[in-house]
Design a protein that fits this description.
The protein has 352 residues and is α/β, with parallel strands linked by helices. The chain has a single domain, classed as Rossmann fold (3-Layer(aba) Sandwich). The strands form two sheets. It has an eight-stranded mixed sheet with strand order 1-2-4-3-7-8-9-10, with helices on both faces. Helix 3 crosses helix 12. The longest helix has 16 residues. It is globular, with a radius of gyration of 19 Å. The protein starts with 5 loop residues before the first helix and ends in a 7-residue tail after the last helix.
């Protein structure tokens, strides 16, 4: 792999080293469990009022995968908790479903004793390959799309238990950042969090000179498609964290020249390790919070710092460093840890 500066090295891990520039990393898959109960998959579109009018022109109508448990059709009066699972950078909901091997891993978890839940995978891919699940006039307000528009749609169209105690939020890499960010800010919506290998937790260092040159040469959104993975991810970060409605056609500011310190400050304001003190009371409301990361993943250091920050603020959480790379065992983790975690910690009261 080519070498990047501190910012781009972290961004290169957003989607588990996936993307055209760096290739697809190996992802181990659990064995199929014979006789596992079957899950129904629905592919829908959800309109996000929070995403309307984005300067980048990203669609406000988002692809969403909904996985309904085996009992959903057979028990028409039963209601279910919902787990919202967020994908990483450079991929969408469909590829995320392949990386965590759903519905197979959902079915495997159910066969091993997890309770029936609805699982929802929303798509937040944008012009520069990822929304960062943030609030931006350039990309749209993906934070509130997830926390409000999507939750409201699922509650209105499926038999959910429409209470925060019965909603779980999970995510991997950029999705882990999203679960951290949205979880901190929207404890009134979700009741349990599972944060997997989160990226982008800490304030960022300046760009390397060669990366500045390459990014400043981008004049249209189409130009960004030819950039290496890490440089394109830097554009996605700028679109999410330093939007500028007066800077067409990209509508963003980069941390370069006279604006370097201002933009780096704006990026730092979006770093969970910097803003966690503002959301301690909300985080203490969660029934359970779990963090995990592979021992061969460079993101383990900042994930450990997030765990330490939670501990220091008296926020109950669990933290595990497991054997693996950024994505090598993510399907195993989803089946054997994420689904059982929510089965144990979400409220099924009102399921009937």
């Amino acid at each position: 792999m080519r070498k990047y500066g501190p910012l781009l090295l972290s961004l290169c891990l957003l989607a588990g080293l996936s993307g055209g520039a760096v290739g697809q990393a190996k992802n181990n898959v659990p064995d199929v469990i014979p006789g596992a109960p079957k899950v129904t998959v629905e592919r829908i579109k959800v309109h996000g009022a929070s995403l309307e009018g984005s300067l980048e022109g990203d669609s406000a109508d988002r692809d969403v995968l909904v996985f309904l448990p085996p009992s959903y059709e057979k028990q028409p009066n039963r209601r279910y908790p919902v787990v919202y699972a967020l994908h990483g950078y450079s991929i969408g909901a469909e590829q995320w479903s392949q990386e965590i091997h759903v519905p197979q891993t959902i079915e495997g978890a159910l066969a091993k004793g997890a309770r029936d839940m609805i699982v929802v995978l929303p798509d937040s891919k944008t012009v520069h390959n990822g929304s960062m699940y943030s609030s931006s006039v350039t990309t749209g307000d993906f934070e509130n799309f997830i926390a409000h528009d999507l939750v409201a749609y699922i509650d209105a169209h499926y038999r959910t238990i429409a209470a925060r105690e019965s909603r779980g939020l999970a995510g991997h890499s950029m999705g882990g950042y999203g679960a951290t960010r949205i979880g901190m800010k929207h404890a009134d919506v979700f009741g349990s969090l599972y944060i997997m290998s989160p990226c982008c937790l800490a304030p960022r260092a300046p760009l390397k000179p060669e990366d500045e040159t390459a990014l400043l040469a981008v004049k249209t959104p189409a130009d960004s498609a030819t950039l290496p993975f890490g440089q394109r991810a830097a554009l996605a970060s700028a679109a999410a964290w330093s939007p500028n409605p007066k800077a067409p056609p990209l509508y963003l500011d980069l941390p370069v020249g006279d604006k370097q310190q201002q933009v780096l400050g704006e990026w730092a304001a979006n770093a969970p390790l910097a803003f966690i003190p503002q959301y301690v009371s909300g985080l203490k409301r969660y029934n359970a919070i779990a963090l995990d990361v592979g021992d061969q993943d460079t993101l383990r250091f900042d994930t450990g710092k997030l765990h330490e920050a939670m501990d220091a603020n008296g926020i109950a959480n669990s933290f595990e460093i497991y054997p693996g790379t950024h994505v090598s065992n993510v399907a195993f983790r989803f089946q054997d840890f994420v689904m059982p975690f929510f089965s144990k910690n979400l409220s099924f009261q009102g399921a009937r």
